Amino acid sequence: MNELGLSRKKLEHAWLQYQQGLQPDTRLEVLHSWDRSRGRVAADQPRPRVMDMNLAYRWWLESELSSACEPILPNLSDLAKQGDFVAAISNEEGVLLWSAASPRMARISEGVGFVPGGHWGESEVGTNALALAMHTRKPQTVFSAEHFVQAVHDWVCYSAPVIHPATGRVLGVVDLSSTWENANPLALTIVQTLASSVNRVLAVTHQRMVPDQFLSLNVCGTISVRFNHQPLKLTLRQTEILLILALRPEGMSFEELYAALYPQDEVSPSTLKVELSRLRQALQGGISLKHYRLTVPVYTDVQAVRDLIRGGMLQQALGLYKGVLLPRSDSPFLESQREVLHSEITEALIRSGDQDLIWQFVHAFPEDYLLTQISKSG
After folding, report:
1. Helix intervals (H) in the chain
2. Is the domain of 192 the same as that of 241?
3. Which residue ranges does the record assign to the OmpR/PhoB-type domain (predicted)?
4. pLDDT tens digits, residue range 135-148?
5. CA pair distance 331, 243, nearest whole angstrom
6. CB under 8 Å to 68, separation ≥6 — which residues?
7. What is the CATH number of the domain that holds 366?
8. Last residue of a domain, one of 205, 229, 257
9. Pair 218, 141 in one domain
10. Which residues pair with residue 176 across a beta bridge?
11. Is there a contact between 151 and 45 (Cβ–Cβ < 8 Å)?
12. What distance in Å separates the CA atoms of residue 191 and residue 158, rounded to the nearest whole number?
């Protein structure tokens, strides 16, 4: 047995001692975290809570971390995929908001809820590197059975906190994790360097604020429209108008919007003008009426799915794509978008060759003939 294996065996023994009420031989930071975890977290729990991925993605877009982390995301993603890690960024509560992973670690991460929306605070899942880095405000490694929950004893995690240079508040954590045999102390240096880069960006842009007005459109599955974090009660046609404008951020003429919305010329143009007036009022003037476009920041799960596909994060894309785009819509533009988006997902799945993801998709969309045949042949 090599040195890494011996360390793992020693930690498993210490963890068992602690669970039996004995004094374990482990470092104090871990022991104190175990003490905080005991009574709040079951050591045999399989995985933490995982919130809706739409909400996690929206939190990511709205967070101060999103733009500050943008320069490090390509490097972080490449490191994860090339080094067989999962990379993650959490908020100050330990909720994962962004991740990228190698194919193997993506599958393993899904099994333990180490995905966007997963709650990895100490009160949720006990001792782990993200929680320890936030608690101690310094980079941390948590190896194998140093984790309080047994489900992640096969893991090693390296985390560094992102600390706002102006306020001193811990905003979140940059993390690299893998299975224990892939342990590499260099990973701790990497996350520390990347977190420092984020801190430098924050030092320059610390006055950046979350937009006062924000529109959110979820249309793939359960339809939900929110403005300023409050639900809007809209008709299908009104939702269609907002989605068309969201997918055409450059704006469009009244005639183009009319043609994109209505399948035939049987609806009076004045009807569309009334709808636009009502929507503009609901969005507190957030629609320009000279050249029709949204003037407030907007999130759509349609664009989020496309971004995830482009980033190679198919598991996360499928998590958002819970149904076809507005299935009852007869808008010519949205019917086309519906077909294109579905094709983009199926083509990405075919390129990936990932049978687990294909089966997941076929289970959700059994009417998709092409992927059903591929899954049977696989």
Report:
1. 3-19, 28-37, 53-62, 64-69, 73-83, 103-112, 122-125, 129-136, 186-205, 236-247, 254-261, 269-282, 301-310, 314-320, 332-352, 355-364, 369-377
2. no
3. 229-294
4. 999 999 999 999 99
5. 11
6. 162, 198, 201, 202, 205
7. 1.10.10.10
8. 205
9. no
10. 87, 158
11. yes
12. 7
Residue 212 scores a pLDDT above 80? no
The residue among 174, 205, 236 that closes a domain is: 205
User: 272 with 244: CB under 8 angstroms?
Assistant: no
Quick: pLDDT tens for 330-361: 999 999 999 999 999 999 998 888 888 888 88
pLDDT at residue 10 greater than cutoff 60: yes
Residues 180, 291, single domain; the answer is no
The tally of domains found in the chain comes to 2
Q: What percent of the chain has pLDDT over 70?
A: 94
List the one residue out of 29, 48, 19, 37 whose CA is nearest residue 122: 37
Q: What is the DSSP string of 50-65?
A: B--HHHHHHHHHHSHH
CATH code of the domain containing 21: 3.30.450.40
| pLDDT classification of 264: cutoffs 50, 70, 90 | confident
Indicate whether 231 and 174 sit together in one domain: no
What secondary structure letter does DSSP report for 293?
A: E
Q: Tell me, what DSSP letter sits at residue 225?
A: E
- CA–CA gap between residue 68 and residue 47 (Å, rounded): 29
Q: What's the half-sphere exposure (Cβ side, CA atoms, 13 Å) at 75?
A: 14
Q: Is 12 buried (19+), middle (13-18) or exposed (0-12) by CB count in 10 A?
A: middle
**Are residues 34 and 183 part of one domain?**
yes
155 lies in the same domain as 188: yes
At how many degrees (to 10) do helices 186-205 and 73-83 cross? 170
Q: Whole domain around residue 329: which residue ranges? A: 213-378
For residue 244, what pLDDT is reported?
Answer: 98
Sign of the CA dihedral 101, 107, 108, 113? Answer: positive
Least confident of 106-110, 271-275, 309-313: 309-313
Residue 294, beta-bridge partner list? 287
